[in-house]
Write a structure and sequence with these properties.
The protein has about 150 residues and is mostly beta strands. The chain is built from one helix and ten strands, in the order E-E-E-E-E-E-H-E-E-E-E. It has one domain: BH3618-like (Roll). It is about 5% helix and about 35% strand. Strands 3, 4, 5, 6, 7, 8, 9 and 10 form an eight-stranded antiparallel beta sheet that branches. Strands 1-2 form a two-stranded antiparallel sheet.
Length: about 150
């Protein structure tokens, strides 16, 4: 299937790249289907692109690349909504807020995107954590060689 994307132009996506977000994403409740697209080779970044609206696309990152000790609990309600049976079925991403340069960009760790790779379902969850540092954590890799 070909889709128009916000960051990469028109591209071909495979069925296995498509994920259902039953409740949409906060602020975009009408958007129910997204494609998860690699931003490039050997990067911790992905694009979460609406399949129906070219203007709705998000840069995502693996949060553990930027905060190795990042941890949170998924509520039973969120786990049930995503049909999570095993921890190994999920991948966690965080939305990146791009600034003029990558080191000035931030990653939102208070509202991760959780993907169930087995059921092809996704959901953004908002954590009940008052640690404001996590809201806009600096996008600086903890591992050498990540740019």
């Amino acid at each position: 299937m070909k889709i128009d994307t916000k960051f990469l132009g028109k591209i071909e996506v495979m069925q296995e790249q498509l994920y259902s977000f039953e409740e949409g994403i906060p602020g975009f409740p009408e958007e129910k289907q997204f494609a998860l697209i690699p931003f490039g080779k050997n990067t911790p970044f992905m694009i979460l692109q609406s399949t129906s609206n070219v203007q709705i696309g998000f840069v995502l990152a693996f949060p553990y690349t930027f905060k190795a000790d990042y941890t949170f609990d998924i509520s039973k309600q969120d786990a049930d909504a995503l049909n999570i049976k095993k921890q190994e079925e999920i991948i966690t991403y965080a939305i990146v807020t791009l600034k003029d340069t990558l080191p000035n960009s931030t990653i939102n760790l208070l509202a991760p995107i959780i993907i169930n790779t087995k059921t092809r379902q996704g959901r953004q969850i908002v954590l009940n954590d008052n640690n404001q540092e996590l809201l806009h954590y600096p996008l600086k890799p903890v591992k050498e060689g990540v740019k």
